[in-house]
Request: fold
Amino acid sequence: MPTVLIADDDKHIRLLVSHFLAQAGYHVVEAADGEEALAKVEERRVELAILDIMMPRMDGWELCRLLKRFYDFPILMLSAKGETSQKVKGLDIGADDYLVKPFEAAELLARTRALLRRYKIASSQQVQLGRLALDRSSREAVAGKERFTLPLKEFELLFKLGSYPGRTFTREALIEELWGSDFDGTERTVDVHVNRLRDRFPEERFGFKITAIRGLGYRLEIAP
Reply:
C-alpha cells in the first residue's frame, strides 16, 4: 500500500489521521513541522502528503512549495479556515486538495483514494475522457473513428485538466504552467480556451465537461 506523510504540529491530529490511514491499510510517516517533514521525505518514498498549514519552523504553505518543486506526489492541505482565499492560495502553490478541520474519517479516506487515483492517471501518456482519448506523445485526440487536431495550447489545457479529473485548477496556476510565468496576457486567455474546448467537445456527445468553480477556477468532470 502507498506511504502517506502526515505533517501537523498537533499530536492528537497526527495520531487520529495516522489511525484512520493505518486502518485503511496505508503506511504512515509522521512529522511535527515542515523541516521534519522534508527530512522524512528524503529518507523514504512518499506517495501522498497531508499537510497542516500552521506549523512551527516551516508552515504548510512553504512546505507545499518545496515539495512541489522537488517531488511529484499529491498534497492535501489541512486547515481550520475554510475561506475561499485560503483555498485559492493553496491551489495556486500546487496543493491538490483542501480539507477543513474538523473532518470525518470517511471524507479523509475518500479524498486520499481520489488523489492517489488521479496521480496514477496523470503519470500516463494517455488519458481517457469519457468517449475521447488523448495521447500526449502524438498529441492526438480520438473518439471512435474520429480524429481531432487541436491547437497546442488547447490540447495541453485539456490534457492537464483530464489528467486530474475532479481537481480544481486556478486560472493563475494554469497560466503559469501552460503559458509560462513571463506570459504577457490575462487570465481571460484560459476562459477563451475553455470555451473553445466546450464547443468542440459537448458533454452529451463525449461524456465529460469542464466546470467553472466560482472564485477558484476550472475542473474537468467525467460523466458516470
